[in-house]
Amino acid sequence: MKKVLKGLGVAAAAGVGISMVRAATTYKAAPVDAGEQLAPEKVDVDRYIKNLSKAIQIPTICNVDESVVDWSKFDEFHDFLKEAYPLVHENLGLEIVSTRSLLYHWKSANPDKEPIALLAHQDVVPVTPGTEGDWEYPPFSGEVADGFVWGRGAIDMKNHLIGVMEAVETLLEEGYVPERDVYLCFGHNEEVMAEGELCGANVMMEWFKERGIRLDSVIDEGGAILEVKVDKVIDGHLAGVGLAEKGHVDFEISVNAKGGHSSQPPKHSALGRLSKILCNLENHQFKAELTPQLCSLFNEIGKNTSYPVRCVMSNFPVLKPLLTKVCSEIPPVASMMRTTTAVTMANGSPAPNVLPQKASAVVNFRIMPGQTVEDVEKHIRKYAGPKTEVKMLAGKNPSKISPTDSRAFKAIEKICKGMDPKAIVAPYLVMGGTDSRQYEDVCDNIYRYSPYLMTTGLLLTTHGTNERIPVSSLEDGVAFFKRYIRELTAD
Q1: In a domain, 320, yes or no
Q2: What is the biggest distance separating any 2 CA atoms in the chain, rounded to whole angstroms?
């Protein structure tokens, strides 16, 4: 027994020693070579600030019911773009696709090569009625103050759209001629999650398909560059590149009962029975797993931590079961590990003294890649029990997962690290939906990335009060888009 314990002790010591050596040698971020650092780009920051401010001042708000949309605001936005970016409109072809989507075509010297596409959407979400007074500056003022550009669309995503236009305008000023075609695809109704013929992005995708055009790559909105700083542990900038996005589906779950007067209630009314079903669904969440994308994210972060922490993170495969358990208890992280269940709406009796004859609730699920709408329905029926109505309202399966060995992903990684020695580039899963998923029929390499340095607190203003973007992040945004276009169209 002593020999066994001694052997285990030696093995453990050897394992620790190996981890320490590995953490000090191979398991660490490779330093950016001075020769790989990129020279400064020409960026007209003042013009960018002015144009982003003007763009925010035009409330391009769409609606599922197109009859109530103020299309004059979209027309005003289109006129603004023509005035602000004359070279783009002199040198690129432009088609209005669907209702108000914009499709720009920058022709190259080699039209036979597969083109690239840069995406953005023109529309923004409305401001919740009654919250206008909570804003430090009016939501559609485009105010430039306190180091920020304020207003709806500052982050989602007129910053991105105007950044792309600034990049193309500046490249044209510099006389750049791409070696493969470039398309700028600006949808008009991304925020209302339109589908099919009503979806501007989908109609643009069909435009490519009808002409037999297959895209080399697509880049759209996604995670920003987040400051990651823990004293004596890590000090970096996490550039998350979305390889895929979750699906979504809304199911209405209903229970029927006799109803009657509330003075003579049964043990459980329809609403009471429904509440038990909802609790059952909440208590039986989908299984959480560390996906390859999340593992890669943790790995890249681990390589950039200080030496003692790297010793632990270098044993990531061993720690995986523990990390899975811990992370599954943290809602923001768990949402990247499982199909989520969110009870969002409920309806019962029309009056306080009337027992409901029918009680209904809507549950929203965000579906992980590898699962489907059908899997969600089976899950509901398993835990809802008999005599329960389950009706799908709307939904879409998850997107495909784009590769990390493509020209486009490598270009994003190269540019990020060349611009910022503190950059940590890692793939991740996008929680929401973007226009980019509509392009899967014409492109395999679809990436979601917004090259703007942010704090987590600022990102939380997206769709919320006091949405704003730091002026300090704008220059690098344009510089990234210029480099991205040159890198992918230079050969």
Answers
A1: no
A2: 84
Same domain, 161 and 98: yes
User: What separation in angstroms does the CA of 26 have from each of 15, 20, 32, 265, 342?
Assistant: 15, 10, 15, 69, 42
CATH code of the domain containing 462: 3.40.630.10
Question: Cα 268 from chain centroid?
Answer: 42
What average pLDDT does the chain have? 90
Distance set, CA 6 to CA 2, 9, 20, 30 (Å): 6, 5, 21, 38
Q: Looking at the structure, do residues 378 and 438 belong to the same domain, yes or no?
A: no
Q: Is 472 helix (H, G, I), strand (E, B) or coil?
A: helix
- Do the Cβ atoms of 366 and 246 come closer than 8 Å? yes
Q: Map residue 244 onto helix, strand or coil.
A: strand
Give me the number of domains the chain comprises: 2
Residues 409 and 261 in one domain: no
Residue 215 shares a structural domain with residue 72: yes
Query: Using one digit for the tens of pLDDT, what is the confidence trace for 110-125?
Result: 989 999 999 999 999 9
Catalytic pick from 169, 190, 221, 300? 190
198 lies in some domain? yes
Do 94 and 239 reside in the same domain of the chain?
A: yes
Q: Is 420 a catalytic residue?
A: no
The 3-state DSSP class for residue 237 equals strand
Residue 331: Cβ within 10 Å count = 8
Tokens in use for 92?
């690129």
Q: What is the pLDDT of residue 320?
A: 82
Are 429 and 337 a contacting pair, CB within 8 Å?
Answer: no
CA distances from 134 to 57, 277, 467 (A): 18, 37, 11
d(CA 469, CA 472): 9
Is residue 221 within 8 A of residue 448, CB to CB? The reply is yes
Is 50 exceeded by the pLDDT of residue 5? no
Q: What is the pLDDT of residues 233-271, one digit of tens each?
A: 899 999 999 999 999 999 999 999 988 888 888 999 999
Same domain, 89 and 124: yes
Instruction: Return d(Cα 196, Cα 199) in angstroms, integer.
Output: 6
Q: Active-site residue among 41, 123, 181, 216? A: 123
pLDDT number for residue 297: 83
Give the domain CATH number at 344: 3.30.70.360
Note down the domain range covering 256: 248-283+340-397
Given a cut of 90, whether residue 332 has pLDDT beyond it is: no
* Residue 1: band (very low, low, confident or very high) from pLDDT cuts 50, 70, 90: very low
Residue 216 shares a structural domain with residue 160? yes
Last residue of a domain, one of 350, 368, 397: 397
190 is catalytic: yes
**Residue 308 falls inside a structural domain:** no
